[in-house]
């Protein structure tokens, strides 16, 4: 089987920094495992790596979709698997980096997706997001726990799966993904919760200082609707609410921080329960020690 490294963990824990170090040492190329970094124009709010930070390492699955386009885990799986094959033909090592757990898992394990499409118009079209999420909670509480109530498209998809098959989406997933299709090493980064939350808060402040509001304003002015899949990303939906006059800017910023902290907690739980990850503690002031520990693990 082809060798793959995957670096996972919560937001703001240091995955990008580690990926550059490993790619440099191991002759690797990096594949984004973040569902929102695929979108053009979503740079600051997704903490997308800048070209000058890439250290000459090829990066894939960045900026390939317009912000009004849909993007699915099935498409991600197909694209990344092709990219893994391509990277191996160059004699390089693919390194998947990101916090979108289901996307990463779908690539590495034997997921199979239905070809059926969720109808654009369905019995759920007139339902509110809250009503949709409540119905999913009664039918498939595991999927409901993983999906944000505003992720309307995926919630309707999960409900439609049940309507069509009388099986829940989580049960279908549980029956799949038992076999890894690559020789994969899963590296997870972790930190003390309080320290991570502090870094998340500081990073949001930096995002605002570096132009997050202006970035979202540009998307808004270009005609991207608030229900677009890209705008469901944390940092974008909250600022959209501010631009719509629904909340004040300080409130929007606090919501970005709160929702980012909640995301980090969900990511920890998901990765620990769903993947066989080897975890490494991060000390941001002595990150070289984390790098050395990971390299030693890979060499063992």
Question: How would you concisely characterize the structure shown here?
Answer:
By secondary structure, the protein is α/β, with parallel strands linked by helices. Helix content is 49%, strand content 10%.
* Fraction of helical residues: 40-55%
User: What is the total tally of β strands?
Assistant: 6
Structural class: alpha/beta
Round the mean pLDDT to the nearest integer and report it.
92
Gross geometry = globular
C-alpha termini separation: 19 Å
Number of helices: 12
**Rounded to an integer, what's the Rg over CA atoms?**
19 Å
Low-confidence stretches: none
Biggest β-sheet description: 6 strands, parallel
Widest sheet: strand ordering: 3-2-4-1-5-6
Order of helices and strands: EHEEHEHHHHHEHHHHEH
Q: Proportion of β residues? A: 5-15%
Detailed description of the structure:
It is a single chain. 49% of the residues lie in helices and 10% in strands. Helix 2 (73-89) packs across helix 3 (101-108). The chain is an alpha/beta fold. The protein has helices at 15-26, 73-89, 101-108, 129-139, 141-146, 152-165, 169-175, 193-209, 212-221, 237-243, 249-274, 287-299, and strands at 3-8, 28-32, 59-60, 93-97, 183-190, 278-281. The longest helix is centred in the last third of the chain and has 26 residues, at 249-274. The protein has twelve helices and six strands.
């Amino acid at each position: 089987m082809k060798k793959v490294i995957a670096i996972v963990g919560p937001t703001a824990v240091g995955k990008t920094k580690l990926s550059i170090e490993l790619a440099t040492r191991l002759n690797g190329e990096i594949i984004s495992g973040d569902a929102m970094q695929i979108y053009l124009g979503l740079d600051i709010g997704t903490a997308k790596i800048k070209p000058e930070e890439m250290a000459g390492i090829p990066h894939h699955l960045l900026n390939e979709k317009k912000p009004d386009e849909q993007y699915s885990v099935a498409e991600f799986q197909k694209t990344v698997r092709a990219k893994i094959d391509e990277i191996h033909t160059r004699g390089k090592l693919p390194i998947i980096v990101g916090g979108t757990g289901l996307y990463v898992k779908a690539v590495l394990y034997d997921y199979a997706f239905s070809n059926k499409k969720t109808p654009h118009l369905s019995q759920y079209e007139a339902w509110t997001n809250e009503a949709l999420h409540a119905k999913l909670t009664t039918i498939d509480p595991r999927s409901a726990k993983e999906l944000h109530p505003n992720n309307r498209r995926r919630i309707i998809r999960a409900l439609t799966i049940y309507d069509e098959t009388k099986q829940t989406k989580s049960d279908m997933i549980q029956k799949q993904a038992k076999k890894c299709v690559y020789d994969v090493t899963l590296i997870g980064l972790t930190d003390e919760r309080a320290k991570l939350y502090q870094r998340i808060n500081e990073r949001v402040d930096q995002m605002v200082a570096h132009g997050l509001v202006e970035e979202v304003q540009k998307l808004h002015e270009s005609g991207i609707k608030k229900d677009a899949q890209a705008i469901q990303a944390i940092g974008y939906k909250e600022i959209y609410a501010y631009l719509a006059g629904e909340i004040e800017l300080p409130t929007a910023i606090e919501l970005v921080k709160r929702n980012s902290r909640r995301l980090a907690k969900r990511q920890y739980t998901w990765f620990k329960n769903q993947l066989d990850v080897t975890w490494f503690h991060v000390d941001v002031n002595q990150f070289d020690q984390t790098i050395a520990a990971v390299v030693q693990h890979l060499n063992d």
